[in-house]
Amino acid sequence: MPFSEVLNQPAAVAYLQKSVLGHVPQALLFCGPSGIGKRKAALEFAKALNCLDENARKKGDSCGVCAHCKAIEQEIYPDVVVADFLYQARLELKKDPSDKSYEEELEKELLKQQRIKVDTIRDITARSQQKSARGGWKIFIVDEAQSMQAEAANALLKFIEEPPQKTVWILLTDKKAAMLKTILSRCQPLQFAPLPDSTVEELLPRVCPEVQDAALAARYGQGSLTHARMAAEALEILQEVQPGPTWPSGVAMSLPRTMVQARENAQAILDVVILALHRKWAAADEQERARLQTVLQKMENYKNAVGRNVSPALVVETALMRVNELQLQIF
Fold this sequence. Notes:
Blueprint: H1 10-21, E1 27-31, H2 38-50, H3 54-58, H4 67-73, E2 80-83, H5 85-93, H6 102-111, H7 118-128, E3 138-142, H8 150-161, E4 167-173, H9 181-184, E5 188-191, H10 197-207, H11 214-219, H12 225-240, H13 247-253, H14 259-283, H15 286-306, H16 312-323
Parallel strand pairs: 1-4, 1-5, 2-3, 3-4
Helix pairs in contact: 1-2, 2-4, 5-6, 7-8, 12-14, 13-16, 14-15, 14-16, 15-16
């Protein structure tokens, strides 16, 4: 059954199935790293509440093949709305999707998205007040909920406090501590756990077919498909340049030219380096550990610098110069 497709989250799935059969919370907060199945679980929950197969619903699940289930899976079901950066980019583009340049301009607009804005929240809260198109449950999923502007979070408050009947809000976050306490107090939290490396290795080629070494990327994925995909890109950049004195500058020059993509790749490269340093630290003697601890602290500083108005290429080159003499085993 479809809930079985939410891998390695038995506690979360059990809670959601119990909710389908009994009391459905009006607001849920799915917590945990990105890329571990939170969005998938939210959509499966929406299917289970709206499935046309009564026998499946009696088991707290969905059939996965009826018209409602298929539409929810494709995110075209009118009563299930996923408000993410793509949804927001479409709102802000305000252009006819049939236009030849639409997809190209949408991609550019998507790269600009960093926060969920108040206009996006106002759009979906207005939709939440409308009558259900199919007469079933209305589900509103807010991805990257920790990125909501304060005004956006405040605009959402009264709607998750007193939603219309058969309406559920699901907020997805990988940074629970960054969210307003007033939002947290109104949501039922549901914790999702990192995935085993073996699961990430199995799933990664499905979402990222071009990945060259799924097992290696999974090792650096920290239990997350999203992090493993980013690690795969970082490992590819690191491998393209021959080791040696010019390795740091070569890697830096290989970063994408667009600032958003360069920052993302730079963060991923530093994450890979930090994890490799941790492994070296774990196997080192006490004297070597002290030296590596200093390097690790510097790497964290470099990682923080990437998020600020600093050249990602300059940060990456400086960071790799620090580790180039350590004979770090990355691959």
